[in-house]
Amino acid sequence: MEFKLESKTYNIMDIIKIPFKASKIYSLLLFVFSILNGVVPTLQVIVTAKFLDVAILIFKGERDYSDIFMYIALIMILIAYVWISNNVIRMIETKLEIKLRESFKIKIIEKRAKLKYKYIENEHIWDLISRVSKDAESKCKNAYRDLLSMSSMVIRVLGLLIVLFTKVWWTPFTIVLVSVPLFKVALKGGKATYNAERKVSKYKRKFEYLSDVLLGRDCVDERILFGYTNKINENWKEQYEIARKIEYKEEVKWFIKMKCSGILTAILSILIILVFIKPVLDEKISIGLFISISNAVFALIQMMSWELTNYSDQLARNAEYLKDLDEFVKLDESDGAIDKPYKKQIKVKSLEFKNVSFKYPETNNYVLKNLSFVIEEGKHYAFVGTNGAGKSTIIKLITGLYEEFEGDILINQKSINEYTKSELKVLTSVVWQDFSKYYISIKDNIALGNINNMAKEDKYIEETLKTVGLYEFVEKLSKGLNTVLGKIKNDGIDLSGGQWQRIGIARAVVSNASLKILDEPTAALDPISESNMYKEFEKISRGGTTIFISHRLGSTKLADEIFVIDNGKVVECGSHEKLMNLNGTYKKMYESQRSWYL
Question: What is the pTM for the complete model shown?
Fold first, then answer.
């Protein structure tokens, strides 16, 4: 049965349910071994007592040597079980974690992919996602293991308490009375510690990012050039220390409380052993049973003082993780977010913004205000303006990334909200300013632009490489199109910023979308190369519709119509010649850049 993340209130029972959904066999095996691990120590107490009693009688000459062989064999079997079971359990836990990675972790990743784009701007949500997603399979496996270990310990304690009850009836009740407050303190401590983790999650994200800056390959050149390592290291240490001190303060506080309570249990256990001396002297309890019970009681000290509090602490933490999981699962999804593009091509014959206003989530300032324009099929358009004018925001609305806006966006006279995500994906192809770099082969890097037809012939990919000016470079490589980019593999190669941008543009070229958009992807190219790139892109886009977004105006002459954006509005529109004749914003921008293209 397929694993599903349910939108419900998660509780302690889900610590059991989630692993069983991932693998019934491994979860059940861990459960069985936990029960046995709880029973075996009590059997060891009884068998060890019998062994000691028989050994004493043999020493006195009252029993034969052959009488002890059975108890030696039983002790060896129990010791062998403990040794073998520990190794088997570790193997089962590893297998279960793998199954959880294949099911639970995959669903966490899918949920992240389905989340509405607006959550990208929300710091609280990103902290939540970080806590839930990071090592999700390990957290889930550890939670189940800790719960079983706690259950096993309870069985073990009950077995010993039953033995104590049969000899001195009041002793087990005294131990239980002391243990209950200890358990409650541990639960509170675990909850407080996890809440501390919630507080520090934002600091952790910061120092983990700074760690990437200090250690990652992408920043090597600038680290050497600017020599900022010590400064960034100071910032890393500052964020790390803030997180460490918050966690340390909580852990120390609750550690002291729990261990002080544990000392009471230890003192009580010693008193219980002293109480058993009299029944031994009165020969109501055998010496072997006394020695065996004494060892078991000291083991009980360890369990009640350390293991019980540790498991209780982990149980409380796991319960808090489930609360985070509950909040994460209930986050709004974007329907069809992970669907592949619609297989049938849908042409964009018209695109219209009618009085569109937009502000980013949890902000009050409008990025776009009553914006209106019309895009027609087969024409080339350019959006120009200063940084922050709202150009990229327009593209995010066209592609359906943001759904909360005022006004109307019409594609082919139909509201954008009436299109499925699958249909929107086939309508447009975008090369973003911050395009992604994939450390896979050159061929696959480009073919991703048309995911429904990745098996295109090499010849088609080669033609695309010619368009973006990379054909000769790739032809010289020993593995050609199969060359892996990045340094994940030994034979991988690095590309320059400009070459990476050409790869990104090639992805847009292979797409069969009728509306192709370039959102300032040529920033790493010089102005002349950028202008030539747009010319090549314009040639292969004939018959289709293109939108160029740029603050460098050398390519705008190619556009049939130019929209000048300022403060979220179209302040000027028309051809290059028309806008130059207006003597307005566009002409001032163009004149200031004229020398770049001479």
Answer: 0.72
Name, in order, each residue with C-beta under 8 angstroms of 314's C-beta and a sequence gap of 6 or more.
Answer: 142, 143, 146, 190
45 Cβ contact partners less than 8 Å away, ≥ 6 residues apart: 159, 160, 163, 292, 293, 295, 296
- Local confidence band at 567 (pLDDT 50, 70, 90 cut-offs): confident
The CA distances from residue 290 to 72, 476, 498, in Å, are: 19, 83, 80
Cα separation, 196 vs 198, in Å, equals 5
pLDDT per residue as tens digits for the range 250-274? 666 656 655 565 566 666 666 666 7
pLDDT of residue 394: 92
| Sign of the CA dihedral running 235, 236, 239, 240 | negative
Residue closest to 468 by CA, chosen among 421, 433, 512, 502: 502
Please write down the long-range contacts of 78-81, taking CB distance under 8 Å and 24 or more positions apart. 78/40, 78/43, 78/44, 78/47, 81/36, 81/40
Beta pairing partners, 572: 564
% of residues, the chain, pLDDT over 90: 22
pLDDT at 372: 93
Measured N-to-C along each axis, helices 229-275 and 171-215 cross at an angle, to the nearest 10 degrees, of 170
Residue 507 has pLDDT above 60, yes or no: yes
CATH class, 14-329 region: mainly alpha
Architecture per CATH, 350-597: 3-Layer(aba) Sandwich (3.40)
**Would residue 489 be called left, alpha or beta, if left means φ above 0 and alpha means ψ between -120 and 50 degrees?**
beta
Instruction: Kindly report the length of the chain.
Output: 598
- Segments making up each domain of the chain, as ranges: 14-329, 350-597
CB 354 within 8 A of CB 511: no
Q: What is the pLDDT of residue 22?
A: 92
Residue 383 β-bridge partners: 549, 563
